[in-house]
Design brief:
Elements lengths: L57 E7 L12 E5 L4 E5 L12 E5 L4 E6 L10 E5 L2 E5 L2 E2 L2 E2 L3 E5 L5 E4 L12 E4 L3 E5 L10 E5 L4 E5 L10 E5 L2 E5 L7 E5 L4 E5 L2 E2 L10 E5 L2 E5 L7 E2 L1 E5 L4 E5 L1 E3 L10 E2 L5 E4 L5 E5 L4 E5 L9 E6 L1 H19 L7
Parallel strand pairs: 1-26, 20-25
Antiparallel strand pairs: 1-31, 2-3, 3-4, 4-5, 6-7, 7-10, 8-9, 10-11, 12-13, 13-14, 14-15, 16-17, 17-18, 18-19, 21-22, 22-24, 23-28, 24-25, 27-28, 29-30, 30-31
Length: about 400
């Protein structure tokens, strides 16, 4: 347990003409920023690159919200308050390594910060959270090498805190996968010096934790999202990249995917459900720059999502153009990212670069999604008609 979660650097592999080389990545442990490493995709002085014109692209931009902003941080827990279009964050770690203990709300429409609580349940980083009704339920986390197993809730309207103590709770840990399904909380993986394979379930009615064996090895710092009624997990493994939860058997099941799969050993990344896709943003790596990946869930097809700067808040020089002519943005990990359905944008805040004042990054994907849907529909029709038939 633990040792089998580290893997060697991923190697580039040849893909079909509609795909791109994945980046070579491996984990780094410092919040001070990864060191530059040679990459088959990044340019150098002998290989200048021009930005490739692509059929679609998302537009990358940045803004600053009004109001007093929170301290820049990494590894905070969060939720999206869809009822009021707010992004809630709690806890985390500042640039000096201090665990934080506050709760903040970002009004996405008005672009304004509000402090919900200065002192929460105790400083921590790497806690995991679930929004149920108007309460953010938080489990675990760590501080100064001490791991927590407490469960508490934070009311996202008034900041009120309620602790809970139920029998047979999981062991202390940071970064567990934590989600709700069928009137229960589920918890899996995380890290406390080692990983735990067991799946834990908290029944809302009996108020008791129960446990189930798992065939999948626990993942110390994987990403998770809820998409179209299913719970998906990615990363922090050298075997299966993508898992889906089977609530009937209380276990995770590996999914075989195609296309340009992101490195499966990525840690501290963000997984975001958007439209018919799951986006993967960031993750720890030796490379200073990153692609954004998208999974077309219907076909289990990974692809590199093309990006361009908006030309106002960002220009090409703020990232790099790789040897294939694709624009890459500065790498981030430990951030919080969500999808704004109204604006059809990915929104990202906080993270490993610890920028002050805290910027709000956006990636407008609405127009690009329309073109990708058209491409997918045409491909489906083509395949349904028997595909290419030689004369």
């Amino acid at each position: 347990m633990g040792n089998d979660q580290s893997s060697q650097m991923s190697k580039p592999k040849m893909l079909d003409n509609s795909s791109y080389f994945p980046m070579a990545m491996q984990r780094v442990n410092s919040y001070n920023g990864p060191k530059r490493n040679a990459s088959t995709t990044e340019p150098d002085e002998n290989h200048p690159s021009l930005l490739l014109k692509t059929a679609y692209h998302g537009v990358w931009s940045m803004a600053y919200a009004d109001g007093v902003s929170p301290i820049a941080r990494v590894d905070q827990c969060h939720c999206l308050d869809e009822e009021n279009n707010r992004l809630i964050i709690a806890y985390g770690c500042d640039e000096k390594g201090n665990a934080l203990n506050d709760v903040w709300a970002l009004d996405i429409k008005e672009m304004k910060w509000t402090n919900l609580r200065r002192e929460a349940y105790g400083p921590r980083t790497g806690a995991s959270s679930i929004l149920m009704g108007r309460e953010l339920f938080v489990f675990g986390g760590s501080r100064d090498r001490q791991y927590f197993a407490d469960l508490h809730s934070i009311n996202i309207d008034d900041g009120n805190i309620r602790p809970f103590d139920f029998p047979n709770c999981p062991s202390p840990r940071a970064f567990p996968i934590f989600f709700s399904c069928n009137d229960s909380f589920y918890l899996w993986g995380g890290y406390d010096g080692q990983t735990d394979d067991t799946v834990y379930r908290l029944d809302f009615h009996t108020k008791t934790w129960s446990s189930y064996p798992s065939q999948e090895s626990g993942r110390p710092q994987a990403a998770h999202c809820f998409h179209k009624g299913k719970h998906y997990v990615y990363g922090s493994s050298k075997t299966h990249g993508l898992l889906v939860f089977d609530p009937d058997q209380n276990k995770f099941v590996g999914i075989e995917t195609k296309g340009s799969e992101p490195p499966t050993d990525l840690m501290n990344t963000c997984l975001i459900s958007a439209d018919e896709f799951i986006f993967l943003v960031g993750g720890e790596s030796t490379s200073k720059f990153m692609h954004i990946y998208a999974l077309e869930v219907r076909r289990n097809w990974w692809f590199c999502f093309h990006i361009r700067p908006d030309g106002e808040t960002f220009v090409v020089e703020d990232g790099i153009v790789n040897k294939m002519g694709l624009f890459m943005i500065p790498r981030e990990f430990g951030a919080t990212a969500v999808y704004d359905k109204a604006k059809r944008e990915l929104i990202s805040i906080m993270g490993s670069r610890l920028l002050t004042p805290v910027p709000v990054f956006t990636l407008a994907i609405g127009e690009a999604l329309g073109l990708i849907h058209l491409r997918s529909d045409m491909l489906e029709i083509f395949n349904r008609d028997g595909g290419y038939q030689p004369l």
